[in-house]
Amino acid sequence: MGESLLLITIITLVVLTIRRARPVILDNPVVINRPGKYHITLAPQLNGAQTFIEKIAKKIGEIPQSLQGGGIYYFCVYDQKVFPAGEKFYLLAVASRDGMLYFQAIKPQPLLHENDSHLKTVSEFSAAVLAQHPPAAGDDVQNGRSLHDAVLAAAQAMHIRVEELPA
To answer: Domain extents for the chain?
Structure first.
């Protein structure tokens, strides 16, 4: 009787340990808002990208200048830790508006038509999120380049391959 109880307890502990070791993949979109710092919108199954995106935000925080605005940069991110539904990469849009950083991550969609592209997929998703935050009249291109460079620096630090999507 005692051995059976001990065996059941050990099996339960092993099962609980194994279940907790796997990351949880959410099937709903995730929105993370840190007022005054950044706003992240992650499509379903991309919650694992949060670590990389927060690393980018930290790199931007190390830049002494205030980011008022700049271009929107689009990337293909090949992260070994994030596999959205069998894909090898996900799409990332990065922008700044009035000192706030905006990140949008989405899974690539199948390219069914000749005019479909990954750039179109991520730019439409990004435009929907950024519609409430139009760029200021005096956007600074240099600030945008700093944002671009921070993405590349964070990717290099985390050993993640990033390719910029040509606009």
So the answer is: 25-164
